[in-house]
Structure formats: C-alpha cells, structure tokens
Specification:
The protein is α+β, with helices and mostly antiparallel strands and 214 residues long. The protein has ten helices and six strands, in the order E-H-E-E-H-H-H-E-H-H-H-H-H-E-E-H. The longest helix is centred in the first third of the chain and has 17 residues, at 17-33. The radius of gyration is 17 Å and the shape is globular.
C-alpha cells in the first residue's frame, strides 16, 4: 500500500526562540520516522513584532511592554529557552537581546518556496539571528542568508528593493490568523490537526505516525 504524504504547514517567525527549537524537534522526529511518514513542509508567516523600527527593540523592553512586567522580570524568563535549546541541539550563542521586524524575511521565504529552497532559507535566517547575532530586518543580512541557502543573492536584493511578495505575505498571515492561529510555532497537519508549540521530538513522532496511519 502506498504511503500517504502528510502536508505540514508551519506557522512561525524568525526571531522566536521556540520556533527554531520547534523546527529542530520536528526534524529529529522526521529523522526517526524516515520513509515511513513522508511529509511536505511549507512555512508561513506570523509576525510577533510587526512594525518595529530598523534598529529593533530590546527583548526585555518588548516583553515588559507586552506582558506588563518589568524589564528585570523579563530577563529572568530565559532559563526555559536555554534548557530547551540545549536539549534540541540548537545553538543560540549569538542571539542578540533585541527583536526585529521580520516582514522582509518572510517575503524572501515566500520567494524561496517557489525556488524549492524554503527550508534551507529558514535555517539560514535562524542562523543569522540566533548564531551570528545579526539584525534580520537588514536587507544586506537577508541577501547574505539567501545566498547561504543556495539562492541568487542579486535576485534577493532586487526582490527586497521592489517590495515583491508583500501582498502574498500579508494575505498569508491574515489567512492563518483567521483560522485561529495566534501563537508560534504551530504545525497544521493536512489543514486539520494542530500541533502547538515546540513539542518534544517523541511526541511529534507519535502524532505524525498516528496521522499517517489513518
């Protein structure tokens, strides 16, 4: 009997630590399932901090503003992220203590999907932010990430300058929000089943095997 391919729509952002941890955990689960559970992965945008200025905003100040806590309280909340990242094998040594607007990054991700390099670009963008500490709203940084993902750097520069895929990213985010997706990362399987948050690899593996066997 032919094995059914699962469609995985991953709604996430670039500067979200749980998104990079969640992707690492998913890929560990996929390595365990192997050919038993073929999947087709598409990344979709859900910006956590749209409209930030070019210089970004300090993470602690951002959390304090959002959740009504002090910057000191916000800084003390990083322990869970560090432990989960270490367990997932995710490097965050260069993670800046600033958040940035990610709209342009999502525009390139939309383009890279057409080019068949979307997951590679997602990894390159995560690396630029969490490992190298770069400002991922800076278009030179984004063009370098595109090149690292095997895409044409000059074409990336042109796309960013012209504003290509702005409407597509905007509409894609509205569509997923209208489906009730308000937090990241969220994996939607076959447009029906939802895996919320950065779940452990073994839990993701069990869910995918169960859904594939339906």
């Amino acid at each position: 009997m032919a094995t059914r391919t699962l469609r995985l729509d991953i709604v996430s952002d670039i500067v979200c630590p749980w998104c990079v941890i969640g992707l690492a955990n998913l890929e560990t689960a996929l390595a365990a399932t192997g050919e038993d559970v073929p999947v087709e992965i598409t990344f979709h945008p859900l910006q956590l901090n749209p409209g930030l200025p070019p210089e970004g905003e300090a993470t602690a100040d951002n959390m304090a503003r959002k959740y009504g806590i002090t910057p000191e309280q916000a800084r003390s909340r990083g322990g869970g992220v560090k432990a989960a990242a270490q367990e997932a094998g995710v490097v965050m040594a260069g993670r800046p203590q600033r958040l940035y607007d990610t709209f342009d990054a999502h525009r390139l991700l939309h383009w890279s999907r057409v080019q068949g390099r979307q997951r590679a670009l997602k990894h390159a963008l995560f690396g630029a932010y969490f490992e190298q500490g770069h400002n991922v709203s800076d278009r030179e940084v984004l063009a370098d990430a595109a090149k690292a993902a095997g895409l044409d750097r000059q074409q990336a520069v042109t796309i960013l300058a012209r504003g290509d895929y702005s409407a597509e990213v905007h509409d894609d985010e509205i569509e997923w929000r209208s489906e009730g997706i308000t937090s990241v990362p969220t994996i939607v399987v076959d447009r029906e089943f939802v895996i919320s948050g950065a779940q452990p690899p073994e839990r993701i593996e069990r869910a995918l095997r169960k859904l594939s066997a339906r």
